[in-house]
Specification:
The chain is mostly helical. 58% of the residues lie in helices and 0% in strands. The radius of gyration is 30 Å and the shape is elongated.
């Protein structure tokens, strides 16, 4: 399934979620955003929410969850809740990075006699290269000279 089709299918799920959204929350989302997803959905994809099943078990696409989470973060929650959610997301990301680092030993990628150091502590020495200034007429003369050398072979 192409990425475009996945997002069109997610638009179907999002418009279905909009139907069941509480009115105070629904009013916080701009109408043009809602209309955009209604307009750009895949009409061949069928999705219906079952009110008796919790939302977590509805089998929503990851794209739908991400987009709806973005809507909630951008339009529905207040500043304190937004900061708490962003801090929780950062903590989750840090935990995942720690798990990956614990699972895979990245020092195995480098030879044992070569130490991998923190690049933040390494001072990078850069120097500017000097450019020899050649006048334009010298360049033209060099081109003419090389042209005649190529023709006459001297």
């Amino acid at each position: 399934m192409t990425k475009e089709l996945r997002y069109k299918n997610a638009a179907v799920e999002i418009t279905e979620l909009f139907k069941y959204l509480d009115e105070p929350l629904k009013k916080k989302i701009p109408q043009d955003v809602i209309d955009y997803y209604k307009k750009n959905r895949n009409n061949d994809y069928k999705f219906e929410l079952n009110k008796s099943i919790p939302l977590e078990k509805q089998g929503l696409m990851p794209e739908t969850i991400n987009i709806f989470g973005f809507f909630y973060l951008k339009y529905c929650c207040d500043e304190i809740e937004r900061n708490n959610l962003l801090q929780a997301a950062k903590a989750q990301r840090d935990l995942m990075n720690a798990q990956v680092n614990a699972k895979y030993d990245f020092n195995l990628l480098h030879p044992k006699d070569e130490k991998v150091e923190n690049t933040a502590n390494i001072e990078e020495v850069t120097s500017l290269t000097t450019m020899e200034s050649i006048h334009w007429y010298d360049k033209v003369f060099q081109k003419i000279k090389s042209f005649f050398k190529n023709i006459f072979g001297k």
